[in-house]
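Slide 14.
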Amino acid sequence: MKKTVILIVLFLSVFAAQAQTKTSPDPTDGKAQDDQESLANDYLSQIMGVAMSATSNMKLFHFVYDWIGTPYRFGGSSRKGIDCSAFTKELYSEVFNRDIMRNSRDIFSMVSPVAKDNLKEGDLVFFKIHSRRISHVGIYLGNNRFAHASSRGVAISSLDDAYYKRYFYRGGRMLQAFKDELEKEDNNKN
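Slide 15: predicted structure.
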């Protein structure tokens, strides 16, 4: 009798699993994958406060999301603790496959100035906080928001916040990216 009950339960569980498989969308189905990506993008948009588009660099947003909450440590360059320039250097290496310098002032020497109103996703934002020299750097995400390693750890902040508005110095675009963009514009004109 026990064996019969066990067989019936086993049969019913296999039958239920097969029925579930038939009604569930196939995760390898293109539409299901598109839906999952769309949900992931919506989630990242909400967390970061940035509207993402089809042209958004999702690798950038995933990188930032993965690092949010990492503690701040002056001179640090790991998940145990990181400072603003190391975070920027790591992001540029992983997302843009670009090796940049380690100090915010040195990084500034690698960019072409960009007006605040013309900042694009992936541009850099520089601050002079309690100093006459550049002392902080972050990565622009869009919608006046930027990612950086602050005293609170890796976070997303707004250029509209009174604190950052007060100390904002300039935006910048990596010189190579700037040159590539000019070449694209020239090619499009021809």
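Speaker note: The chain has two domains: 1-48, 53-189.
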